[in-house]
Structures are given as C-alpha cells and as structure tokens.
Write a sequence for this structure.
C-alpha cells in the first residue's frame, strides 16, 4: 500500500514536482491492472477457445476481464481516487473480488444469461458492494480505511481455505476441480506478484538518489570500449577497440562451447560408467562405484581447483618448448595444435550431416539391425570420418614458432594464425564439468536400466543377441524414456555450473560481467543481464531436450 501511495501522490510547488517517486495514478493502475489481468487470463485458460470465435461462451469471461480493466483505467482517468486510500483500495481489492468470482465460476452462465437467481445474487451483490465502496470510500467507517490491507489479506486467506476445502471434498467433475485449483493458485500468486511489481516500480523511481541510480536500467554503458583483456574464440574481442557488448557476446560463446563439449563428454562417460556399475565383473563394477561416490560427493568448486592446480604442475614449463614432432606444442600456458582452413572443416561437417540424413531417410520404414547392416553402417561412418580427417589434414598447417631472443628459453611464441590454441583454463573447465556431471549421469543410466522389466533382458537373451546388441537395441532405447527428463536437469546444471569458471580464470559470461561490475559499478543492470543470459540458456537446453523427449516417447502404431 505504501508503494502505491508513494508512486501516485504528487507534490507540486511552483510547477515543480517534489516527489521523485511520482509516476501518476494511471501508470500505477496500468501496471497493477496488467499484472492482475495476465494472471486472471492464465487462471481461466481460455486461449484454446479463441481460435473458435463463433463459440463466444468459451472465452466470454476473458473478454469480460479485459473489458473490466479498460473500465477501471477509464474510471481512474475521470474520477479522483486519493493516492492514500482510494487507489490502494481499488488495486488491492480487485484481486480479492477476482479470486471470489473465479472460485464461484458463475461468470460464463451470467454472461450468457443462463444463470440462476442464486448465481446472480452471490456474484452480483459482492461486486456491487465493492464498486460502491470504491466510489464512496470516504463515506465508509474509518476502521475500514485504516485497516484495508489487513481486511483484504484476511479475505484472501479465508477464500484460499474455502477453496482448498472444496477441492479436497472432490464435490465436482474434473473440469470443475481444475477451475477451483486455478482459482486457488490465482489467490496465492496475485498478492505476491503484485507486491513485487509495485516494489520494482518504487525501486525504479526511488526517492533516494543513490538507490534510484542503482536501479537505473540503462545499458548504454555497454556501448563504451571495454577496459580489460579476455581470451576468446571464435568471436574476436579486441581490447581498446571493441565495445562491452562485443566482449559480452564473446563471453557467451565461451560459456556455450565449454557447456556443449562438457555435455557431450559427460553423456558418453556417464553411459559408460553407468553400464559398468551393472557389470557382472566385480572389478569393473567396483571401480565404477568408486568413481561415482568420489566425484558425486566432491564439490565442483573444489574439483575445479584441484584440476587447475594439477594441470599447472603436470604440464611442462613454458621455457621447455615441449612438442610432439613440431605438430603439437604444449606447456602450462596452453596447447597449440594443427589448424586447418575453415571451409575444410565445414565440408567435413557437411559430409557427416549428409550421411546422417541419408540413413534417416533410408530408415523411415524400419532399421535393419542385423550384424551385416550394422557393419555396413559402421563402415560408411568410418570411411566418411577418415575422408573428412584426411581432407582437413591435407590443408593443415603446423604451429609456426618464433623466438626473438634465441638465447632466452622462454621467449618463444606461436604465430596466432598458424595454430589452434587450447588454454589450460578451458581444459580445466571441461574436465571438471565432465567428471562431476558424468557421475550423476551414470546414476541416472543405472537407475533407468534397473527400472526396466527383467523380462525385456530375458527376451533379448532368448533371441541370441550379443551383450552389445542387447544394450543397443533393447535396453538403452527403452531406458531413454526415463533418462531424458533427468538428463535435461543435468544438462541445465552444466550450463549453470559453468559460472564457476572464475575459479580457474576462464573467461565465461559470469567472469566477464563480474569484472565489468568492478570496473563500471552498474551492479543491478549487469546482474539482470546475467540473469537473462542464464535463463535463456537454460530454456534453450530445456526446449531442445523436451522436443527430443517427445520424439522418444512418441508411440507409433
């Protein structure tokens, strides 16, 4: 209530607004109405009926809600609602009335003029009382005006208790129960979300200058030149030449490539370890169990620190110029390998995609799983891979080393365009995320396999399938149904856990934004940018995995 009053109360002296929080009654009511209307429409869930415009009864309540919001906005523009009592009463009271009407569920019948007299009375009387009190609040007892927040809060609690009791009694068909549950969720969520909305508006228009400056959501400073150096690939971000937006995009690419590679590696390693845990070989199953228990119970931050320190001690010193026949140079500063032209790599990937699409088209009517067909497919994949590697090696260049001071052992360097560099920080991140997540993936694989009926394995044995065929053709395809949702969560965890890259000094998006915070001081805009980045990445991974899960669980007849 205090937020609504501060945002809508105006102090004008000599034409100057003295309330820095003032944004106007219309804007306050507009934000509040939009929040309430959005939740109201979600609770009704009549979106599917909108595609059938002739069936007006299917979405009449939604239209009534939209019309009511427009009428409220018009009333606020015409009538004089006081910022201390009238406007708060309206904004806080509307969700209570909407909760009551949602719980009753009489609006479709009332709007179609099919309601009984009792329905008209139990919906119309409270609505009329609320409208009367909103228009003539000053004529009501002082106790109502002074304690409106407590009264409305008690009303919401009572409505929620009644709704829960009705739902628990199961005195209705499934459709009625769904409507009541939606009304209950609306009652619980509206006060919290409305409070957050008003608080954010107050923070953005705070009377305190320092707080208002902190919450000034202006990202124009990202257009300035960046003031620190990061190690990035493949997006170039040059110190002193590129803007902070460029460095931010480069950091996202850094986070994405370490996440994608870790997801692939942890899936392969996790499946291998998970199957090993079920092995009849005692040594193999014991080793897999030890791996899972060690890495699953080790904090990722500690694991990354251990890997980073061990890489620094294990790799040779930079001055030693360690290399493998001049093809690969490696030290505690990085690894420089052969590089090839981009078009050759693109052609290799195109060949792999072409073979995959070809096999998909050929397998539309069923896949031949005989040993001969499997060997043929494996041979084609192997030949394609060998051809692609040969194509890349043919145009590959070895790292070109320059040493300006021959007598100085640590003066050598590799010309950037002649080698592909893998930094120790990237290696440490991939190793840490892979080892940690693979231990959880292994348990997911083991649990999913053990959840299958034993008869499936026995049937595969009776068909004289080899252990590899049993795993590939019978066990894993069925286990995928329960594995995919759990793997979805773990893949999102890989994306979020990449924020620990600051431990190994890897230039991911969290590290870059953290340094920007120290340099610029725009904490809240940068934190919001970071929040949106990780949320978008998680939603992207979740969307892809949900689509794959729908494909895996699809039943074909």
């Amino acid at each position: 209530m205090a937020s609504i009053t501060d945002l809508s109360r105006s102090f004008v002296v000599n034409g100057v607004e003295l309330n820095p929080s003032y944004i106007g009654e219309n804007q306050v009511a507009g934000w509040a109405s939009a929040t309430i209307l959005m939740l109201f429409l979600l609770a009704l869930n009549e979106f599917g009926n909108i595609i059938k415009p002739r069936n007006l009864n299917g979405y009449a309540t939604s239209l009534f809600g939209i019309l009511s919001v427009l009428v409220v906005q018009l009333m606020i523009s015409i009538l004089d609602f006081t910022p201390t009592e009238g406007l708060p009463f309206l904004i806080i009271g509307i969700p209570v009335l909407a909760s009551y009407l949602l719980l009753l569920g009489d609006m479709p019948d009332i709007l179609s003029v099919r309601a009984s007299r009792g329905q008209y009375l139990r919906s119309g009387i409270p609505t009329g009382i609320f409208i009367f009190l909103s228009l003539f609040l000053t004529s009501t007892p002082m106790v109502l005006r002074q304690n409106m927040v407590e009264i409305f809060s008690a009303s919401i609690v009572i409505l929620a208790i009644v709704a829960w009791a009705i739902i628990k009694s199961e005195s209705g068909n499934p459709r009625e129960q769904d409507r009541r549950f939606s009304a209950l969720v609306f009652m619980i969520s509206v006060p919290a979300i409305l409070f957050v909305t008003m608080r954010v508006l107050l923070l953005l228009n705070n009377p305190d200058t320092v707080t208002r400056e902190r919450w000034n959501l202006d990202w124009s400073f990202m257009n300035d030149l960046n003031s620190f150096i990061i190690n990035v690939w493949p997006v170039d971000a040059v110190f002193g030449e590129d803007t902070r937006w460029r460095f931010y995009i480069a950091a996202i690419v850094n986070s994405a490539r370490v996440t994608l590679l870790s997801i692939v590696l942890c899936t392969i390693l996790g499946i291998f370890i998970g199957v090993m845990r079920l092995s009849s070989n005692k040594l193999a199953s014991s080793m897999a169990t030890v791996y899972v228990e060690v890495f699953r119970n080790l904090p990722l931050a500690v694991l990354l620190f251990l890997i980073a320190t061990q890489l620094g001690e294990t790799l040779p010193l930079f001055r030693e110029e360690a290399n493998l026949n001049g093809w690969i140079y490696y030290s505690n500063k990085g690894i420089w390998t052969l590089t090839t032209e981009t078009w050759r790599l693109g052609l290799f990937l195109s060949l792999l995609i072409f073979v995959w699409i070809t096999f998909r088209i050929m397998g539309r009517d069923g896949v031949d799983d005989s040993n001969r067909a499997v060997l043929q497919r494996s041979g084609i994949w192997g030949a394609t891979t060998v051809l692609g590697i040969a194509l890349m090696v043919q145009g590959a260049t070895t790292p070109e080393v320059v040493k300006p001071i021959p007598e100085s052992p640590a003066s050598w360097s590799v010309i950037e365009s002649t080698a592909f560099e893998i930094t120790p920080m990237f290696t440490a991140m991939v190793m840490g995320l892979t080892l940690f997540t693979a231990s959880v993936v292994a348990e997911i694989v083991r649990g999913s396999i053990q959840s299958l009926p034993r008869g499936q394995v026995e049937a595969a044995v009776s068909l004289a399938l080899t252990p590899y065929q049993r795993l590939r053709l019978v066990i894993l395809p069925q286990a995928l149904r329960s594995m995919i949702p759990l793997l979805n969560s773990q893949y999102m965890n890989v994306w979020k856990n990449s924020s620990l890259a600051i431990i190994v000094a890897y230039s991911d998006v969290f590290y870059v934004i953290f340094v920007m915070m120290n340099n610029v001081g725009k904490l809240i805009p940068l934190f919001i940018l970071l929040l949106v980045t990780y949320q978008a990445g998680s939603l992207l991974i979740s969307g892809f995995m949900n689509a794959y899960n729908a494909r895996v669980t699809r039943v074909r007849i």
Observations:
- Residues 244-298+424-552 form a domain with the MetI-like fold fold (CATH 1.10.3720.10).
